[in-house]
Amino acid sequence: MAAAISIWSAYGQRWPKRIVTRWKGSTGAGKIWPHAKLRLGQPSALRSIHLMNQKLLLSNRILLAASAERGQPFLARTRAFARAFKTVDENSAVSVDQTPHGRAVIATRPFTTGDAVLHLEGVILTSPSRYTLQVGCTEHLAPTPGNPDPPWVCMNHSFTPTVHLQLRSSVGGGVHAVAVAIADIAEGDEIVFDYTFTEWELAEPFQCVHTGRVVEGFKALSLDERKERLHLAFPHIRQMHEKEMQATCND
After folding, report:
1. Per-residue pLDDT of the chain (251 residues; tens, 9 = 90+)
2. Beta 163-169 vs 175-181: how paired, if at all?
3. Fewer Cβ atoms within 10 A, N terminus or C terminus of the chain?
4. 72-78 long-range contacts, CB within 8 A, separation 24+
5. Are strands 156-157 and 192-193 parallel, antiparallel or unpaired?
6. Please, is 164 exposed, middle or buried when counting C-beta atoms within 10 Å of its C-beta (0-12, 13-18, 19+)?
7. Which residues have a Cβ under 8 Å from the Cβ of 81 and sit 6 or more positions away?
């Protein structure tokens, strides 16, 4: 991030005051994110995901404001700023290895917090399966026929994830997802995410190998667990939760 500040200064630009409150120090200490509202009662993993989400949101706002005010040439100059956030890394390095619990996605190089570890792309289906990712109320991302076994279908579940999934718009109006590191990942670590952030109801529930708990999706969580996760869940999860709560109130 300090590199991004240096690049920005080199072009003689100043941060829009309406977007960034203030920045202290060149090493990243004392940075203020006006939209980062951490809940001290949350588990550390959830707080890390939330703070990362707010950083990515702020970076997107800065880039959008820059393109709107300065035009396309200025947007091109901000690419270095986007790279500093490391939200997209086309040189991701992972492998699919066999473990005692089945196949798993393993990091073949280190990643730092905020790095894009893996891209999840495919086709949209209207029904879920064991190898789909829910991206809408009735939309599920599935592997393409030309690549039926991509690494992302082997990502396992964990209630203490190493990555959080971010939805992205694709060219042509589609969607894809990016697995972003929420903590430093060492070479050899498994890449895992929390299925309850994306899946309302799993097509094939299973028992978590780490906790022994049955994983069924967001729908099966207790009300307290839902409240704890809701602000980090995919948009369709929040929508389906609100719809269910309204139906319960009407009854």
Report:
1. 444 433 333 334 444 433 333 333 334 433 333 433 444 445 555 655 555 555 555 555 544 444 444 444 444 443 433 433 333 334 458 999 999 989 999 999 999 999 999 999 999 999 999 999 999 999 999 999 999 999 999 999 999 999 999 998 876 667 899 999 999 999 999 999 999 999 999 999 999 999 999 999 999 999 999 999 999 999 999 999 999 999 888 76
2. antiparallel
3. C
4. 77/11
5. parallel
6. buried
7. 4, 7, 8, 59, 62, 63
For residue 75, how far is the Cα from the chain centroid?
A: 24
E-assigned strand segments in the chain: 94-99, 102-107, 116-120, 123-125, 133-134, 140-142, 156-157, 163-169, 175-181, 192-193, 206-207, 214-215
Q: What angle do CA 29, 230, 235 make, to 5 degrees?
A: 100
Token pair 């991004």: residue: 4
Q: Which two tokens stand for residue 66?
A: 């820059």
**Residue 90, SS3 per DSSP:** coil
Amino acid at 173: G
- Helix intervals (H) in the chain: 2-10, 44-70, 72-77, 79-85, 223-229, 235-250
| Of 107, 167, 159, nearest in space to 141 by CA | 167
Amino acid at 12: G
